[in-house]
Each structure stands twice: as C-alpha cells, then as structure tokens.
C-alpha cells in the first residue's frame, strides 16, 4: 500500500486557517533525560536525534525509549505490525525539531447518535452492506477497538500504530462556504465513552471564497480537553504517506512519533495531560474527524478517500487488536452520512467521503 501518493495530485498550500491561541496550561512535572529538551509550550518536550550509526531495528527497548523512538511490536508474534514499524524506522532518516503552535481546533470524544437515518444508509450500497454493529457519530468516522478498561491499568491500551495517506483537501463542488472547511485523520486512545483523547495525526483544511481556493496541511498532536497543537518543521502535503504511533508511559504522560515516508523525515514529541485528566485506556481508534473549531462543529472537507493500513493496537498486557476486532463508525451530519469506512482486511480499510 506504500506510495499511494502517485494517485493524488498536488495542491497549492496557503496560510493556516487558524492562528495560535493561548491556553491556560499548567506544567506537569516530568523528569527529563539528558538528551530531552523542553519545547515552546508547557509540558511539551522532544528528544535529540540519535548518534550517527544508531540502528533502531537492532536497538534494545531501553535504547529505543532513550533516543525517542516509539514502542516496537513483537516480531515473533506480530510480524505484520513489526514490519510496518520497521519500515517507518528505516524511513526516519532525518529527525525534525518540532516547532509547536497552539490552535483552537479540538478533536474531542465521539459524539454518538442512536442510529442512522434510514434514507442516509439506503442511499449508498456500501452503507447498506455495513455490519449491524456499525455506530453513528456526528464527528467521528473510522474504526474503534475497546478493551473493557474502566480505569488505568493492565487492560488499558498502551500504544497503537497506523499508516495513512494525506488526501487532497477541497470543498464539495457547488458548496463553497466562503471560508474554511476542516478534516483530520488520526490515531488515538480514549474518547469512546471517556472524556479525554490522547491522539496525533494530520489535519487537511480547504478554503473556498468566490474564485479563491487554497488548502492547508499539518501534523499535530492533542490531549483533549486541550486543543490541537500543530507540529511545524515536519513538511506535510497531499499525497504523502504517513506513519503515526501514539503511546504513553503513565496515565498523564503521552507521546507521538510521526514519519513522512515521502521525505524520510520524522519527529517525536512528549506531552503531559491536562490538569485533572488521567488516561483510562478503554478505547483505541483510527479516525477521520470533523473537528470543533471556535466552539462549533466544523464543515467537513471533501477528502474523496483515504487509505488506512497496518492499523494495530496493544494493551499494557500486550493484548493485540486490529481492524477486524474493532467496530465501524460512520459520520452522519443531519440526515446524511458524509464519511464512512470500507473494510478491506484485518488491518486495513478505506475512508470515503460522500
């Protein structure tokens, strides 16, 4: 599935749709190691690039953690997940020092609906053929795995990985909003019946006003109820193949590692939970979302389709989950389903916009 970018055309990228906003962040103490540095937002850190010749494939787990690499799937028991991780590490040739920008974009918990409007399902044969356990949400679409955890512990999700393509961001033909429409693709922990979400991914936004069109792309991380933090320095554009891994080392310390396969660049960020927030770890998800911007649910970008593959999640006890053991979620806005997953296999699916 790599190098799907050749099927996607380039677009012009102009100024960001949302500028940085200050947030009342309280820095949570985090014991920093010698090669770790504070970033320009409280509680956020990064780790220096490893020394020349360092090989993450042969490194120990302790060496990986020290040099800012993400947890490694077990090669003996989870060969496909390990192969995806190993390929991402081999493409991590240049580590980018992240430049952070706070936004007022929020990727919150799933806003669930009881059921879909029947006409919305009947309008598309793929939707009519979806499993009976499909859920419906006004902001999420994708797949969600659940562990049964009710508090942080051995059944909590520990980390999850995924590869995905950055889509062309555009507004629906004939539906120019006179402003920005938004979309995001991400991996995360919590948010399905819990109030926080530890997550990272890519935003893809489209502007349309009269004859003016533009698009904006950025990697980001977030620990809701804090808002999205853009990760500057790591180039992202339509057609790029991305690897994202999200994990935590405690109920209040999270990490994101993002690789751009097309540029062979990566970045690693550590960040603390909002005050009073503790990870539950009851869900792990791979999502395309219509975020909340300025207090309101944003208009969803017309992204056409997004391939997701090598989507795996692990609990603290190393119980393994994939797409086949997860629940599909469709995004329904009003009486129309606008974003939904098409199952392709145990670890792969394609997101569709309609």
Describe this structure in words.
By secondary structure, the chain is mainly beta. It has a single domain, classed as Jelly Rolls, CATH 2.60.120. Helices cover 8% and strands 42% of the residues. It is built from 4 helices and 25 strands. The protein has a 20-stranded mixed sheet that branches. Strand 1 and strand 2 form a beta hairpin. The longest helix is centred in the first third of the chain and has 12 residues. The radius of gyration is 19 Å and the shape is globular. The chain starts with 35 loop residues before the first strand and ends with a strand. The N terminus is likely disordered.
Task: Explain the layout of strands and helices.
Blueprint: E1 36-38, E2 45-47, H1 61-66, H2 79-90, E3 94-95, E4 99-102, E5 105-106, E6 112-113, H3 118-122, H4 125-128, E7 135-137, E8 140-146, E9 157-165, E10 179-181, E11 184-189, E12 197-209, E13 212-224, E14 229-232, E15 241-250, E16 253-260, E17 265-272, E18 283-289, E19 292-293, E20 296-297, E21 305-315, E22 320-322, E23 327-333, E24 336-345, E25 348-353
Parallel strand pairs: 3-17, 7-23
Antiparallel strand pairs: 1-2, 4-14, 5-19, 6-7, 8-18, 8-23, 9-15, 9-21, 10-12, 11-12, 11-18, 12-13, 13-14, 15-16, 16-17, 19-20, 21-22, 21-25, 23-24, 24-25
Total strand segments = 25
**How large a portion of the residues is in β-strands, by DSSP E?**
35-45%
Helix content: under 10%
Low-pLDDT ranges: 1-15, 20-28
